[in-house]
Amino acid sequence: MKSLIYCFLICPLLFSCLPKEGKQMNNALVKDSTPMYSSKKSLAETVVGYCTPTLDAPFYVALEKSVRENVLHYGMQYLSTDGEGDINKQVRAVEDLLSKGIKVLILNPLDPKALIPVVKKAKDQGVLVFILDSFIDDDAPYISSVVANNKLNGELLGTWVANNIKKPLLRVALISGNQGNPVGREKRLGFIRGLADAQILHENSTNFKIVTQGWGGWTNNGGLKAMEDILVAHNDINVLFAENDAMAIGALKTIKEMGMDGKITVVGVDGQKEAYQLIKQGRYSVTAQNSPAVLGEHMVTIIARYLNDEQGIKQVNYTQSVIIDSDNVNQFYNPQSLF
User: Is the pLDDT of residue 32 over 60?
Assistant: First the structure.
């Protein structure tokens, strides 16, 4: 299991003061940056461990990078482990972090229940637990979480479809990530709710049918394969809602290969750079922003605030919901972005 460690040395003052020039001292990495939140305490002795569910998708790679950079931003030390898309491996990955003396655990759980015992173990060891991007069961003793408002993102996307796609009947296919995932469930139920509510508001009735659901495992290849199965069985689909952009982009490859480009409204979630490119080309209709850069920054800022004994930190914190289509894509597209 690969681990990364970054040691960070800051000014020897009672308050945090990041150096203006990077330098090496006693094998400690010193980073040139200024945090948005100014820590009054030195956090140099705080070892933060982050466990990602996987690194097999651009979103998770970008999220790990954001967490790492922001941890270093505050002068804390950093370790990371990879759950490799397997719940048993993620449990072992967290246990590995705990064995290395971390003081803070940032966990992006693959499953809301399976990680409860290891989170309780972390608390028993005096480790502060924070949840990022996904959800964990309320029985898990965590301090605070940062997540996208997935239900609202879904609702906004459903409303967009109702307002922009006018057909006698919307025949909708869903491509979901993995079964039991609460984030995916919130996205798709939000989408259905937003679609139904907007149609009822304007037409006093609904005119859509959820024809089928496929499972894409959050990846391009998974979305491609799921769409192959969907179109073989249901070639009259005219709307696709995918629970992330990666699966939607994979599905678009299948749509093109089967000669159905332009016949299916493709809707996704996350705000991936490649999705923005496809929106600019007119091949992808709309996505909802779930920025890994924003998630990582908010999470680590909350940790820094907590370590400074600030009061009033919420247990659940949402990032802002924004939908992006051809009207505003140029405001968000950054060709240099990692994600």
Answer: no
